[in-house]
Design goal:
The chain is mostly beta strands and 333 residues long. Helix content is 12%, strand content 44%. The protein is built from 3 helices and 23 strands. Strands 2, 5, 7, 9, 10 and 14 form a 6-stranded mixed β-sheet that branches. The chain is elongated and about 150 Å long.
């Protein structure tokens, strides 16, 4: 009787060994796979905190399972479809802190392996260092950051104060939010020089290297009119503007007729503004003898204009000539 029992136990043991051997031959191991880890804040906390992953967000995992499942797993890894998602909840004791650091531990239950595959997390290579910053919203005045040009007066910003959302540790000591470095807005070409220039400028999206957002994200910039000064330009020479094939020789009856005094207003500067006074003989029909044409003025600097629009008609004479004498200009300098 005892012999039969022993024989039965030996048979069962041998059967178990055969099953384990067959089972082991059907298993495969995939070692040291680096998986990306995506850490996010719990629902309801994302708008109150910002999360920063320090270093590489990765975990090293090995896998054991049937060959067909391991082949399926390899395909997911090659297609970058396998990653670990972790939701972090800010603990109650840290919720009022402006910043705190934490370490997220990845365990096997968080690895989305195919059915039948067992993930094995490498201890020491499953830790993700994160920094959590508390977000606050503060009203801040806007400061215009001029790129180059010096302003001739205070720049008006509308709105002058915006709501800025960002890390508390940054906004606690920031006194104003600047615009993006910008040129002052330009007046339209046909606008009076004394009019205000208006433009739109975006606010910065980072402060001290940390992202912030503003409401609104852009402000209206109003540049004041430039300070003006009157200039008297005596004895400005009058030139003749002629075509290259003009067959008549223009001359003034005397030296006094060939010069004009101009009264000009424009931006304040040390030097007198540069102008070009001329008579345009490129259009119309002209005959020898006495002629009359309106004086035209070209300013070689912007934002200058004549006072009281004092242009006048100039008298000159045209003599027959086979050539245009030297010194006559065909175009403004």
């Amino acid at each position: 009787m005892i012999d039969r029992i022993l024989s039965l136990l030996v048979a069962l043991s041998l059967a178990l060994l055969v099953w384990l051997y067959a089972r082991s031959r059907d298993q495969e191991i995939l070692d040291n796979v680096t998986l990306p880890v995506q850490v996010s804040l719990a629902e309801g906390q994302a708008e109150h905190y910002s999360l920063e992953v320090n270093g590489a967000g990765q975990a090293v995992v090995s896998f054991s399972g049937p060959s067909d499942r391991i082949r399926e797993l390899r395909g997911e890894i090659q297609r970058n479809e396998l990653h670990v998602e972790v939701v972090l909840t800010v603990p109650e004791e840290h919720r009022n802190e402006s910043r705190y650091s934490d370490t997220v531990h990845i365990d096997a239950s968080q690895v989305p392996a195919p059915p039948g595959v067992t993930p094995i997390v490498s201890e020491g290579r499953n830790r993700i260092s994160v920094t959590v910053r508390r977000m606050v919203t503060r009203p801040l005045p806007v400061r215009f950051d001029a790129l180059q040009e010096e302003t001739s007066g205070p720049v008006v910003l509308d709105p002058a104060v915006v709501l800025v959302t960002g890390p508390q540790e940054v906004l606690d000591h920031i006194r104003a939010i600047p615009t993006m470095p910008s040129e002052l807005p330009m007046r339209p070409a046909n606008a009076p020089p004394g009019s205000t220039a208006v433009g739109r400028v975006a606010l910065v999206q980072e402060l001290e290297g940390r992202p912030v957002r503003s409401e609104p994200s852009k402000v209206t910039v109003k540049a004041p009119p430039q300070l003006r000064k009157e200039y008297v330009l005596p004895d400005v020479p009058i030139h003749f503007l002629c075509q290259a094939d003009f067959t008549l020789r223009p001359e003034f009856f005397n030296d006094r007729d060939g010069r004009v005094t101009l009264h000009v207003i424009g931006p304040i500067q040390d030097e007198a503004p540069k102008v070009y006074a001329f008579l345009d003989l490129t259009h119309g029909r002209f005959e020898s003898g006495s002629n009359h044409e309106p004086l035209q003025i070209q300013f070689l600097q912007k934002d200058f204009q004549l006072i009281d629009d004092q242009l006048r008609v100039v008298t000159f004479k045209l003599d027959p000539a086979d050539f245009v004498p030297k010194g006559f200009s065909s175009s403004p300098p």
